Amino acid sequence: MRTTVEAIFWDSSGTAGAVPTTVYDRDRLRAGNVVDGPAIIEQFDSTTIVGPGQRAVVDRVGHLVISTGAAREDQQTGGDPR
């Protein structure tokens, strides 16, 4: 699933710098695969950024569903994501 790891510049939580970031080939991802950020998902016609603290899940039809840390916590606890 993973293709390479690159040092990518991220500015999150007030701390900027190069962070090892996994780069994925979108064609190799399958339903149920989970990609935790920071990550980059490349495909022939677009690039998807999964930032630090985010998670991408490939749904049953192949869509990437990206959630933030807060949204994931709400899903796990049954809280209202609004």
UniProtKB/TrEMBL annotation:
InterPro entries: ACX-like_C
Protein's recorded name: N-methylhydantoinase A/oxoprolinase/acetone carboxylase beta subunit
Limits of the Acetophenone carboxylase-like C-terminal domain: 21-60
Superkingdom field: Bacteria
Organism per entry: Pseudonocardia alni
